[in-house]
Amino acid sequence: MTFNTKDLQQTNSAHHMQPFTDNKALADKGARIITRADGCYIWDSEGNKILDGMAGLWCMNVGYGRDEIADAAAQQMRELPYYNTFFQTTHPPVIELSKKIASLAPDHVNQVFFTGSGSDANDTVLRMVRHYWSSLGKKSKKGIISRKNAYHGSTVAGASLGGMKGMHEQGDLPIPHITYINQPYWYGEGGDLDPEQFGLQRAQELEAEIDRLGEENVAAFIAEPVQGAGGVIIPPASYWPEIQRICDARNILLIADEVICGFGRTGSWFGSDTFNIKPDFMPIAKGLSSGYLPIGGVMLSDRVSKVLLEEGGEFNHGYTYSGHPAACAAALKNLEIIERENLVERVRDDIGPYMQKRWQELAQHPIVGEARMIGLMGAIELSPDKANRAPFKVKEGTVGFICREFCFENNLVMRHVGDTMIISPPLVISHAEVDELIEKATRCLDLTWQRINEAGYCE
Ligand SMILES: *Cc1c(COP(=O)(O)O)cnc(C)c1O
Fold first, then answer.
1. Average of per-residue pLDDT across 2-29
2. At the topology level of CATH, where does 32-62+344-455 sit?
3. Ligand 1 probe mutation, 151, 270, 299, 424, most atoms within 8 A of CB
4. This model's pTM is above 0.90
5. Using only C-alpha atoms, what is the Rg of the chain?
């Protein structure tokens, strides 16, 4: 099939307002038009074959081109394309998926509430934690503590729970009773502390914040096991055990946002397994269906589901598409593939360690201050002075953007967050494809180095 790129770009700009995009700037430049995909590759309307180092938006865990997922969804659409799960009705695919998710979840997690996306999941979780405490007669416990630079989605509650300034500035956010502690970002904020000391210190900010607000006013702490959109920030080993200790000691619910970490990304089914944490709520989406159809949910621990079921009465919340039959069928097939192909074990024991080793080689590059990766999510920090983890003298993000543009030109999808390059490939990526990714990334780093030397950004 051939495409008229210019025409499509013009029509796109005339009628399509795109998310997280400066649409005016994009109209001048023209969007890249992705037309098909297979495995770990996407193709654009000009026929370029591009290695998708981001698995779409962190979601394409089983890779593109899985006919059996398409078939499962199509068959379900013929049988029962839609019915709702409100008002005392349900259907086989949602029942089967609920059971499957409970079987994969940590032992103490056995219920799931379905949503259409990760943002919806976090809206749901906000209402659930407050409803939980108020069902127990503790109406003042409604504060939620989050972290600066967290990402929990784009809806009003999702963006409020997130700690991204640029998002709060638009739309008069955050909503009340949400506060933020600092993130466990050692490379950028650790100063002279060693990582473990620093991780402990950042975790202890949670206790200080609970004291400041009063324990009777705090409902929950929310965090991604590994921050994704914030720049693949892997917490020091000291961090999560201390957070868990504080949540337990202070009677605060723990929400582990598993939207990225869930379904194999970190080498376990869930990030909570990798870090050995015991959350009360686990929002999920992305890898649940590997992006084949939109679906998300909130997984609930026995302790909270018991209260909500026994004391909560009717929960006045739900989405038309909660537990959509076709999305459930696609998710079930996706989970079947992850299990059948042992993708979680593959990330833990085979391709994960291989890619981590190759990724670490990038740390030798003159403009790389640090390379880090857990499972199959990683980052490289760009720096002119690695010994001091120093930033560039130009505006933050300038060099990251240059590098991202080189990736684009060289047919590699690698994202930048400020001057941090991030990667999160499909869990099916082969050893040869990892080699190709490293080779392309190295080339883009070389080109970036050359460009910034010419521009004088390294002085
Ligand atoms: C992507 C993401 C979300 C939002 O999910 P959507 O499906 O885009 O609404 C929430 N939390 C985390 C950690 C995410 O990465």
1. 97
2. Aspartate Aminotransferase, domain 1 (3.90.1150)
3. 151
4. yes
5. 22
